Amino acid sequence: MKMLVSAFRFLVFSNIYVSLCAATFTAKTALLLYGNNGDAKVIALVFFATLFLYGFHRIYHRSKMLPEERNEERHHWADEHKAAYYIITGVSFVAAAVLMFYMPVMVWVLLIPVGILGLGYSLPVIPTKSGWKRLRDISWLKILWISLAYAWLTTFIPVAYHSGVTNLFNPDVLCVFARSFLFVFVLVIPFDIRDVAHDSKNGIKSLPVLLGVKFTLRIAMWFLMVFVFVVLLQFQYFHLSSKAATALCISALEVAIVVPLSRPNRPDLFYPLAIETSMIFHWAVIFIALTQF
């Protein structure tokens, strides 16, 4: 049992687990649009790109952490396994770069906004009266940047690879993009709740800092209701099967159960186990609904 816990801690704190979640979230797009999990090279590209961006952010952010933030389990683990962390981040960059040579030009173009968001999230690129700021430092918009990057990466990249740029504005593709944005927006809110004390001390006006935990969780449920509305809209007017619609609603129900459990004092492992796993569950229920029945 101890070995299993250690293995899970390694997967989580090395960012491998969240990258796996992003990969399954990408496969979900292909499942809904094409009836399969998509091309392995695209899935791998999203996995390694996510792994690099998370690793880069952690490495760059280390020098700016508050002392009490450094003592949290996820950051303490990275300090204890610094060499492994740097190796994983470096390998992920090389792997993503190699995979790019198998991508059409349009995929390269579509990755530019994600790269800008990813680097701007970590690096101070916005001039303000009080100095240079990162995207994550601009009020509550941290959630917006993450949701937009995830939705863009996991929707438009597999579509562009599979059927070209002309299909990006297809109503079914736009519905997948909108749902992905809303779904990730809801899932990111618990992480802002986790970081509410640090964000407050750093002057970051996240939603929990501005509105409190209870009202922020209420906002999350409102966004989840909009997610369900988009499901019903696509089912009614575009091309979404009843099986897929049912699976998506089951996924929303699972999120509605786990997200309200978020509290600032939860253990570090709660968030990947309860929240990030929702992306894997999201893919799994769609896969089961579309391939097993």
List the helices and strands and how they pair.
Blueprint: H1 2-13, H2 16-34, H3 40-61, H4 67-70, H5 73-80, H6 82-100, H7 105-122, E1 126-128, E2 131-133, H8 142-163, H9 171-194, H10 196-201, H11 207-211, H12 213-237, H13 242-258, H14 270-291
Antiparallel strand pairs: 1-2
Helix pairs in contact: 2-3, 2-8, 2-9, 2-14, 3-6, 3-7, 7-8, 8-9, 9-12, 9-14, 12-13, 13-14
Question: What tags apply to this protein structure?
Answer:
293 residues; mainly alpha; Farnesyl Diphosphate Synthase; two-stranded antiparallel ribbon; 14 helices; 76% helix
What does this structure look like?
The chain contains 14 helices and two strands; from the N terminus they run H-H-H-H-H-H-H-E-E-H-H-H-H-H-H-H. The protein has 293 residues and is an all-alpha fold. It has a single domain, classed as Farnesyl Diphosphate Synthase, CATH 1.10.600. The longest helix has 25 residues. The model has no long low-confidence stretch (mean pLDDT 86).
Instruction: Classify the secondary structure makeup into a structural class.
Output: mainly alpha
CATH level 1 class label: Mainly Alpha
Instruction: Give me the CATH fold name.
Output: Farnesyl Diphosphate Synthase
Q: What oligomerization state is this entry in?
A: single chain
Q: How many separate structural domains? A: 1
Beta-strand percentage range:
under 5%
Helix-strand sequence: HHHHHHHEEHHHHHHH
Rounded mean pLDDT score:
86
- Record the strand order, biggest sheet: 1-2
Low-confidence blocks of residues: none
Portion of residues within helices: over 70%
Radius of gyration: 19 Å
**Total E-strand runs:** 2
